[in-house]
Amino acid sequence: MCGIAGIIRSSGKETTLDALGAMAAVLRHRGPDGYGFYADADAGLAHVRLSIIDVAGGAQPLTNEDGSLIITYNGEVYNYVELAEELRRAGHQFRTRSDTEVLVHAWEEWGPGMFERLNGQFAFALYDRRTHMVVLARDRFGVRPLFYAQPDGDLVFASEAKALFASGDVTPAPDPVGLDEVFTFWSARAPRTVFEGVSQLQPGCWAQWRDGRLTVSRYWAPEYERGTVEPADALEQLDGILNSSVNLRMRADVPVGAYLSGGLDSTVTGALAAAASPFALRSFSVAFSDPALDESLHQRAVARVLETEHAVQSIGAEEIGAAFPGVVRHTETPVIRTAPAPMYLLAKLTRERGIKVVLTGEGSDEVLLGYDLFKEAMVRRFCLRQPDSAWRPRLFDRLYPYLNTGNRGGTFWSQFFLTAGSTDDPLFSHMPRFLLTSRIKEFYTDDRRAALEGTDVLQQLRDGLPADFQRWSGLEQAAYLEVTTLLPGYLLSSQADRVGMAHGVEGRFPFLDHRLFAFASALPGRSRLRGMKEKDILHRWARQKLPDSLPKRTKQPYRAPDVDAFFNASRPPEYRDRLLAPEALEAFGWFDPAAVGGLVRRCLAGRATGFLENQALVGILSTQLWHQEFFTNRQSAAPLPPEGADVLLGSAIHAVHNGDRG
Amino acid sequence: MNEKEVLQRARDFVIENFMYMRKNKTIGDDESLLRTGVISSLGMMEVVGWVEEAFGVIVDPEAITEQNFDTLNGIASFVTSRVSASAA
Prior knowledge:
The structure holds two protein chains of two kinds. By secondary structure, chain A is an alpha/beta fold. Chain A is 41% helix and 14% strand. In chain A, strands 10-8-9-1-3-2-18 form a seven-stranded mixed sheet. In chain A, strands 4-5-6-7-11-12 form a six-stranded antiparallel sheet. In chain A, strands 15-14-13-16-17 form a five-stranded parallel sheet, sandwiched between helices. In chain A, helix 9 (317-331) crosses helix 28, helix 10 (340-352) packs parallel to helix 20 (493-501) and helix 12 runs antiparallel to helix 18 (474-484). Chain B has one domain (3-87): ACP-like (Non-ribosomal Peptide Synthetase Peptidyl Carrier Protein, Chain A), CATH 1.10.1200. Classes of the chains: A alpha/beta, B mainly alpha. Chain A binds chain B through residues 403, 405-409, 412-413, 415-416, 419, 435-436, 439, 442-443, 592, 594-595, 598-599, 601-602, 607, 609-612, 616, and chain B through 16-17, 20-23, 32, 34-35, 37, 40-46, 48, 61-62, 64-66, 69-70.
């Protein structure tokens, strides 16, 4: 896994090695093992490398045989061995064993037809210097990031937005609508970002840039074609796909480890990884000092049965507060939960223990319908069919037992769920979450609210839904929304790629193999969600295929301390009072000082315990940190010098360095 | 303490703790606190706790109903009846 960057000109401006070096420098955490550049008169590419496959021969940028195609690539194409074989048979010559070179030949052989053949997680740029054309591409689910901007008709792209700003061609400015999306969906929705003029390539898309024009095309989108009957051999099919998916993701020239959360999904990936690993598997997990959030007993139980070499990152309020500014620097967006912080610290521990690739259970809840949100939507729909029924809303008590603590209230609480959105609304399943999250906007300043008058990000989401959406069942609609909003925008980004790559740790996600998605989405709904039993087919598979001694429990939703991280720590982080002070709030202009003052007062009194105030505090504080980091206090890094590069290609570099390196 | 005074204290409590970020919004004495989104389910537990603490009444689980707790008038009426019942 790596970091990529590039500048392709149509404006006639010069691309300097200094600019490429500056872009590479701010991405160095993604690729601490090496770096390289390509530069000619009107194009430059940069690459920072985390060596995983073909450690000796996989340096980048890399070219085809005649040097006309140059690639800079971040990611893994797991089926590269099979693709290379196919390409060799078609006459292509390979100089390395890397998956990078496979992509170059795949483009030559298949053009845009290559993308659907790739099984992996990737973002790359392929530059054709004969035609001065660039291809950008991103994997199906959006595991790997790819940002771009088009200042003055040029194309500037990179794995992270901070590299665009380091190029000197793109000036950082906030996009208020992007922030409004964060405070609705938990993240901006691609192609939008929280930076004005900066876009992200949508998952499942590729783009062609030629003569200053960018054309984006889609090669994959989630589709649902459910059957009416579960195939008799469904469990065997699932077994085959899961094993193949994990085995492909164990391909690496360095040891592969695993994260264990204590729940079923990471137990499955951990068990299959342990079986496929030639060494004792190294596993890692997070333990919280707050017993209400901690699952370490269950994690240890899984590690014991799998006989992994297990390491634990203990997290208390202080650790989250201390890590949070670094987390925001890497996520590059405000967040409404501190949950990325423990993952950031876990990646740090993982790297310190010498592991740079981990398998995790991410994606299972989206593909096999594990989230409470799916059940909640089903129950809401069921209740609204008979609005006068007294007993139907009682199902919410089963779904959220804490809402009915000691029988305090019963159906009374269910009103919130039953008034959040009509069944005619295509966003029905997600309206409780979207409405609850949107309440952070009550803290906006009057000016901010006025500037966003007429902006309706919910309607924009509705307007962009695919034509088939109406044909899908309520569950499938909910799954689609989850796979295209929260998964790429927040979970795979702020809680995975960005916090993992902050420490040079690559996550791999067997449940996000597109073959598993195709298999699962062709099953009848009840194979995945049977009554109130989530991921039914995976539970059946686990009972049949995994040892009896292995715990197969449904874990509680992953949460980290939010308000408590900043107000219940033995020592509050220094930035808390400074950034929440009226002067800082007024200076940045996002949130109303009086409203935030009310929130701080309740936090100090220990009364801010509900979802609204927890998410508001984290959202406001992370926005202040984000604003400070990217707009008022931007740090610069010294450019990576060409002298230290593993690869130097292109006429501009040869001119500078007398062609002494290839 | 009469019902009017309890109503005023309940209104102050709700505004100070649940509406501090909505400076231009008001809540009617008969408006639903839950449906208008002023108070969430967890927030309702806080209101119940406040009623117990501020007025010294015990709130049985079965008393937490829409009628007693979903409006400011409902809260005022419930508290007044309980206070006067315990004083009698």
